[in-house]
Design brief:
By secondary structure, this protein is of the alpha/beta class. It has helices spanning about 10-15, 45-55, 70-80, 90-105, 110-120, 145-155, 175-180, 195-205, 205-210, 230-240, 245-250, 285-304, and strands at about 1-5, 25-30, 35-40, 40-45, 125-130, 135-140, 145, 160-165, 185-190, 215-220, 220-225, 225, 260, 275-280.
């Protein structure tokens, strides 16, 4: 089963799917445009969320970092005058240190992720979308800032005027990513932020055209006129789309074959230009995640 993932929505769905199929049968293509260097180490938040999920150490209350992690190094750096504006746990930092050392030794991000996954006992396949450096930049009323500055440091408060993916013209999807899509009959886009979590993957050369040849199912991250979590509403609006499930479907465009909306959304399937399934997508418990995963698997089996 192949997923496109970023943020927290898709990992929550994968948590449920893991109860239905073996990890060995799961491949995840992961957004890397929110990666950033902090205190000399490369932070890959979307990759690490999946590594921690599959290795059983994810903090599944916050859906980032390691459960019961400590922050001694972060606190010490702050006392020494290092303005480490992202709060990084000690175990989490060990992941970043090893990744950064592997990359300094000449390993690609894909190779470094494979090594980390192997040492953590991860049996699923976690694939960075690209080995090339990319950065999601947010145009705000106070200038162009990195997504992590916008969301983590400023808590999403600045006005958003647009989104720019720096480095996109020189970046390519990895061969592993393209092979994964070619070898899969279906692709699942979970309820992640469409603009900054999934959008960078879709923007890479050749990805959209290849997805048009596959059965693509997406889960809306919007209920009514509000995102389930995160800044998806502001970002969709800045790109000219309505903050609604219809806006998400329009953003994804012709790659979609089936769209899943929440039963609380209040929309009619007739409002969409593609087949729509109504389900409980608010994954407030593992049981709900499992049921959503079961429904998605049934729809894929029915259509592929």
């Amino acid at each position: 089963m192949l997923f496109l993932s970023g943020g927290t929505g898709t990992p929550k769905l994968i948590q449920g799917v893991r109860k239905l199929i073996p990890d060995e049968d799961i491949t995840v293509i992961v957004n890397t445009a929110e990666d950033t260097w902090v205190s000399g180490n490369l932070i890959c938040p979307d990759i690490d969320t999946l590594l921690y999920l599959f290795s059983g150490i994810i903090d599944d209350e916050r859906w980032w970092g390691v459960k019961n992690d400590t922050y001694h190094t972060h606190d010490a750096l702050m006392r020494l005058g290092c303005d480490e504006r992202m709060m990084i746990g000690d175990i989490d930092r060990a992941t970043h240190v090893l990744r950064s050392n592997l990359i300094r030794e000449g390993k690609s991000l894909t190779e470094a992720t494979e090594i980390l996954a192997s040492r953590m006992g991860v049996r699923a396949r976690v694939l960075p979308m690209s080995n090339d450096p990319l950065a999601t930049m947010i145009a705000t009323d106070s200038g162009l800032i990195h997504f992590q500055e916008f969301w983590v440091v400023r808590h999403g408060t600045p006005r958003v005027d647009g989104v720019l993916i720096k480095g996109l013209d020189d970046a390519s999807p990895t061969a592993e990513v393209m092979d994964a899509i070619r070898s899969s009959d279906s692709v699942v886009i979970g309820p992640s932020n469409p603009v900054t979590s999934i959008g960078p993957i879709l923007s890479l050369r050749g990805v959209r055209s290849l997805l048009r040849e596959r059965f693509v199912l997406a889960v809306s991250p919007i209920v009514g006129c509000e995102p389930v979590s995160g800044p998806a509403g502001k970002l969709l609006s800045s790109e000219g789309y309505s903050v609604s499930s219809r806006g998400v479907a329009e953003y994804y465009g012709d790659i979609l074959d089936l769209f899943v909306v929440d039963l609380r959304d209040g929309v009619s399937p007739d409002e969409f230009d593609l087949p729509v399934v109504v389900a409980d997508t608010l994954m407030t418990s593992l049981e709900v995640s499992v049921e959503l995963g079961r429904r998605i698997i049934c729809e894929i089996d029915r259509n592929v």
